[in-house]
Design goal:
heterodimer; A: four-stranded antiparallel sheet; B: mainly alpha; MetI-like fold; 8 helices; flat; binds adenosine-5'-triphosphate; binds magnesium ion
Chain lengths: 210, 216
């Protein structure tokens, strides 16, 4: 079943077209890599899917529900985005970063949120960083916290913007594994990357934006 | 110069100090929340709201507080023919004036926070109010604390302006005593009291800054 369907998406900035009639369909458990030159609109695509940009025309259908020009409120949590610079909340600890969206947006009780967060921290090998602040973490650890925070709210689609650009080869392998596992659990995954070989290795399909 | 004189003088000044501290405390209580509102309005999407707020900030910062106090107290009399409590007028004038300064400081702080923080909160389905108060504002406060502390210490000294509409606060009482006794001692004593309060506040703010130093 396709979780995400993009039909003839057009997006321009100040009259300058960036995405032109872009279409894409992704099923549960599928990994799609998006490649393309710098400035071609890869990040913009992810931002459109996550409601951070208004689209000019076309449609984005998430879980069979159409996202028109503006993001509907209850669709936001169906799709998660891991930003290139992660955007962790600096004033909160690792575990608070993960708990906050659960408590604030999903209205889950704090006790349950803690259980969910601890499980994720263990899965992502962050259990000893629970009480650290983002500035105390390495780049790889920060990324894993961002991943934990995004998947805690249980989205069906997970978007990664340049997940490997700041990582050394060992960490690339680690995030490779994490992404694969997410796909195995049925998440639809979109990875924007410069690293064509990484894209080809990890993805079921590689799509180039031209 | 005997001890008794000092004790008496001190008692008189303490009375004035009470009023000064009331002005100080009430101004902070009203102007900080107002300042938050001003900072939000100053960033409004509506050009009209934004411009009105900017004009308000300009007038408040561009004219003497002394004049503002006089206007707030006397304007109702000249326009509508009624007078009201001087102390209330002072609190209104101070709150409106300081709200403009705080608003401008808050706006600067809010705008210095990375746009990515708003965006990630948006994708995690925080609404704007939640994003502002849970994510953005706490980070802004850390950045603007030195500026806020400056403003608050200025307020300590500014309370002496209340005497312009006849509110007897610390400094006006000291002046009266100085004239009455033909002595500079009451004024120096009052100066010492302002200094002590400012020192306490400075130390307090340093402590808060240290406390907020737990993250970068
Ligand atoms: N808010 C904006 N206002 C105006 N132009 C924008 C805006 N955001 C992006 N653009 C432009 O849109 C184009 C696509 O940007 P985008 O960030 O999507 O590129 P990208 O493919 O992710 O590039 P990179 O590989 O360098 O990250 C660029 O030309 C960029 O300058
Ligand atoms: Mg990009």
């Amino acid at each position: 079943m396709s979780v995400l369907e993009i039909n003839k998406l057009n997006k321009s900035f100040k009259g300058k077209p960036v995405l032109k009639n872009f279409s894409l369909k992704i099923d549960e458990g599928e990994i799609v890599a998006i490649i393309g030159q710098s400035g071609i609109g890869k990040s913009t695509l992810l931002r459109c899917i996550n409601g951070l940009e208004k689209i000019d025309s076309g449609e984005i259908i998430i879980c069979n529900r159409c996202l028109k020009r503006k993001m509907q409120k209850d669709l936001k949590l169906e799709s998660g985005l891991i930003f290139q610079d992660y955007n962790l909340f600096p004033q909160y600890t690792v575990i608070q970063n993960i708990i906050l969206p659960l408590v604030v947006a999903k209205k889950i009780k704090k006790k349950e949120a803690v259980i969910i967060a601890k499980e994720l921290l263990e899965e992502l090998k962050l259990e000893d960083k629970e009480l650290s602040y983002p500035y105390e973490l390495s780049g790889g650890e920060r990324q894993r916290v961002a991943i934990a925070r995004a998947i805690a709210v249980n989205p069906k689609i997970i978007c990664f913007d340049e997940p490997t650009s700041a990582l050394d080869p060992k960490l690339v392998k680690q995030v490779f594994k994490i992404i694969k596992e997410l796909a195995n659990k049925g998440k639809a995954i979109i990875i924007v990357t410069h690293d064509i070989s990484f894209g080809e290795k990890i993805a079921d399909r590689v799509i180039e934006i031209k | 110069m005997d001890l008794e004189y000092f004790i008496n003088l001190f008692k008189i000044l303490i009375n004035g100090l009470k009023t000064s501290l009331e002005i100080f405390g009430l101004t902070i209580i009203f102007s900080i929340p107002l300042g938050i509102i001003v900072s939000i309005l100053a960033r409004s999407k509506s050009v009209l709201i934004k411009e009105i707020t900017n004009i308000y900030i300009l007038v408040m910062r561009g004219t003497p507080l002394l004049l503002q106090i006089i206007c707030v107290y006397f304007a109702p009399y000249y326009i509508l023919g009624f007078t009201y409590n001087r102390f209330i007028a002072v609190i209104i004038a101070f709150s409106l004036n300081y709200a403009a300064y705080f608003g401008e400081i808050f706006r600067g702080g809010i705008e210095s926070i990375d746009k990515g923080q708003w965006e990630v909160a948006y994708t995690l389905e925080f609404n704007k109010v939640q994003t502002f108060f849970i994510i953005i504002f706490p980070q802004a406060v850390k950045k603007i604390l030195p500026a806020i502390s400056n403003e608050i210490i200025t307020l300590v000294r500014d309370t002496s302006l209340a005497q312009v509409v006849g509110v007897t606060e610390l400094f006006s009482l000291a002046q009266k005593q100085a004239n009455y006794k033909f002595s500079i001692i009451p004024l120096l004593l009052a100066g010492g009291i302002y200094l002590i309060i400012s020192t306490i506040l400075t130390i307090g703010f340093k402590k808060v800054e240290k406390k907020l130093d737990y993250y970068k």
